[in-house]
From TrEMBL:
Family designation: Belongs to the Orn/Lys/Arg decarboxylase class-II family. LysA subfamily.
Pfam families in the record: Orn_Arg_deC_N, Orn_DAP_Arg_deC
Domain of life: Bacteria
CDD domains: PLPDE_III_DapDC
Domain Orn/DAP/Arg decarboxylase 2 C-terminal stretches: 18-354
Biological source species: Marivirga aurantiaca
Function: Specifically catalyzes the decarboxylation of meso-diaminopimelate (meso-DAP) to L-lysine.
Record pathway: Amino-acid biosynthesis; L-lysine biosynthesis via DAP pathway; L-lysine from DL-2,6-diaminopimelate: step 1/1
One BP term from GO: lysine biosynthetic process via diaminopimelate
The name this protein goes by in its record: Diaminopimelate decarboxylase
Subunit structure: Homodimer.
Amino acid sequence: MENQYLVELAQKYGTPLYVYDADKIASQIKRLNDAFTGVNLKLKYATKALSNISVLKWIKKHGAGLDVVSIQEAYLGLKAGFDPKDILYTPNCVSIDEIIEAVDLGLTINIDNISILEQFGHRYKNTVPCCVRLNPHIMAGGNTKISTGHIDSKFGISILQMRHLLRVIETYNIHVIGLHIHTGSDILNPEAFLRGTEIIFEVAEDFSDLEFIDFGSGFKVAYKEEDVTTDIEMLGKELSKSFKNFCKARGKELELWFEPGKFIVSEAGYFLSKVNVIKTTPATVFVGLDTGMNHLLRPMMYDAYHTIENISNPSATQRVYTVVGYICETDTFGTDRKLSEVRERDIIAIKNAGAYGFSMASNYNSRYRPAEVLVHDGTDQLVRKRESLDDLLRNQIIVDFE
Ligand SMILES: *Cc1c(COP(=O)(O)O)cnc(C)c1O
């Protein structure tokens, strides 16, 4: 999006502000669909990346289903108009009660541990189909907090426990229609995926009722210009080929599922804030923003790099700044960044903020969460109001000590 337009949006709606480019979301979905040929590809957008209902509706309009990790995300998806069957429910460490609720809603159920699978089988036998999440123990992911496939990970049923898993399925006559792996976010190269697929093709021989295989996600996007990203086209070509062979050998056309979050929405998002203060210290020059890690946690939580630009003074001389938030603990967005000269009240854009931006925002320091704007079909539309004091007080019950 053009800097000038973003500055206008910041003025129109105020800051801090999340802005999403709907066209970019649509083109990312298209890019995935185009990369896979001759296979029955189904995309299940990972809701947790960005769960604004208008965004979900836009994603539905472009043909994707949803992957949800909580019953609450499922309710958001239903509110957005998704068919329950097109919502894959992939929770971790939830109680059987929540799974029963998901079954009652008609979601597609993905189970990731043997204890719950036994309870599920005991209750439903073969009357409710399910998918099982396997852990193929592929070490991948850019950060241990988001690596989910390694041996010590809490996610999935280990392929080393396959005999136990098969015994449970047989005992209760469970109707397993899908196999799922998700090896973590930020996977650097398609090799990890392709290794995972080989493992799962082998394992699939023990499951006769399969209708789909879900390869999870982890597609990387470029946060820095020189970042290596997942070669989607190469992955699509290779995996389409091996998947077709797999289906042919099985004598059945299965669906190939992916559940990307970041890939679909990250680059569509801009996080806009205003410079409150320029603070020169003996060591550095700080740019202090009217936001903080409460609104964009990734830099502090994952050491994530986000491109930062001064969009209201773009052609000035470049200087070096450390860009920080207003939270009362260290909350740095970027250290020693080159920005065109920053003045108080300038508008700063943080890029790649669509995924895990607003969805991880909190009220820490009792700050209001930002507004969100969706730009689609040439118009900008407010899709979430900025919070107010009423939102902070909403569920509080105030004790009268008189
Ligand atoms: C978080 C998550 C995803 C999405 O990961 P991205 O890196 O955002 O693409 C997909 N599937 C599951 C089960 C997840 O937990």
